[in-house]
């Protein structure tokens, strides 16, 4: 990735003015930390409200008579079962049931849906959807796919709703995993990537600049960078595509079957359905688990895991220090027979074997407003 290829956030000047430290992520120049530092940004989000610029992610609007059919083919869920404003966590799978991307889909109208896709996969996701819509003229996949040009912000934490209210955005009736269009060309959902109550807002740049200015007038709100976003999501046991879930990993092994309704598992015609049913029938060989290293030494992605006899047992996919948990936290994949809370493993950290316990997820409780 050369400097000329790197994408820049529409609000980059605001992050520069806030003395952000930038780094590359998924082809974007992203604010990693601000002067407060990762620890304070993380804890401030848990205690008050953190403001994140997530404009590297992409919003797609899918509409038309074939929108439901297209989504039901692309994802292992039932788009028709969604109520207006209801959101659903789901995936794009390949024919082997590997996870191409994880998404949140929100129903905006009878024939309109909003899809939020990950930054690194946005172009591939759009291509995947368009190819699928055009694949079979006999299929009822007649749908319009529009990639939206929006600034995308997240405000997360127990005081997020109050800060938005002070800024003139009322959120009281909106519950977790629901979304709507509060104004023209706006999209807002009560969702996020931290385990806290919070909101994600897609809106035009001029409106975003006004909203950011109002929010930052509130002492409860501070900018939070990508580094703290990662430690927050890891404590919450949430997956990062490219590490914890990839096209080589399936929803069964990833512990994400809760996102696929039972009737869809049994009879859905989504891409990868036959492969996933086969995996479920024989059982996954590896499972994603939480990992708690002993002591203060974090274990990082890629570290090999071994059982008590020194036999290979799996690998770490995400790892770091959990500021709220107060100890190192990690996730990884282990042999299915070892995926039991309390099981003792060892992580190889630069030649030193660090004792690691399998730990229930999440490491910190979720605090969503479900009503």
TrEMBL record:
<dbReference type="Pfam" id="PF01571">
    <property type="entry name" value="GCV_T"/>
</dbReference>
<feature type="domain" description="Aminomethyltransferase C-terminal">
    <location>
        <begin position="287"/>
        <end position="363"/>
    </location>
</feature>
<dbReference type="GO" id="GO:0008483">
    <property type="term" value="F:transaminase activity"/>
</dbReference>
<keyword id="KW-0489">Methyltransferase</keyword>
<dbReference type="InterPro" id="IPR027266">
    <property type="entry name" value="TrmE/GcvT-like"/>
</dbReference>
<dbReference type="InterPro" id="IPR028896">
    <property type="entry name" value="GcvT/YgfZ/DmdA"/>
</dbReference>
<dbReference type="Pfam" id="PF08669">
    <property type="entry name" value="GCV_T_C"/>
</dbReference>
<feature type="binding site">
    <location>
        <position position="200"/>
    </location>
    <ligand>
        <name>substrate</name>
    </ligand>
</feature>
<dbReference type="GO" id="GO:0005960">
    <property type="term" value="C:glycine cleavage complex"/>
</dbReference>
<dbReference type="InterPro" id="IPR013977">
    <property type="entry name" value="GcvT_C"/>
</dbReference>
<dbReference type="GO" id="GO:0008168">
    <property type="term" value="F:methyltransferase activity"/>
</dbReference>
<dbReference type="GO" id="GO:0004047">
    <property type="term" value="F:aminomethyltransferase activity"/>
</dbReference>
<dbReference type="GO" id="GO:0006546">
    <property type="term" value="P:glycine catabolic process"/>
</dbReference>
<protein>
    <recommendedName>
        <fullName>aminomethyltransferase</fullName>
        <ecNumber>2.1.2.10</ecNumber>
    </recommendedName>
</protein>
<keyword id="KW-0032">Aminotransferase</keyword>
<feature type="domain" description="GCVT N-terminal">
    <location>
        <begin position="12"/>
        <end position="261"/>
    </location>
</feature>
<comment type="similarity">
    <text>Belongs to the GcvT family.</text>
</comment>
<dbReference type="InterPro" id="IPR029043">
    <property type="entry name" value="GcvT/YgfZ_C"/>
</dbReference>
<dbReference type="InterPro" id="IPR006222">
    <property type="entry name" value="GCVT_N"/>
</dbReference>
<dbReference type="GO" id="GO:0032259">
    <property type="term" value="P:methylation"/>
</dbReference>
<dbReference type="InterPro" id="IPR006223">
    <property type="entry name" value="GcvT"/>
</dbReference>
<keyword id="KW-0808">Transferase</keyword>
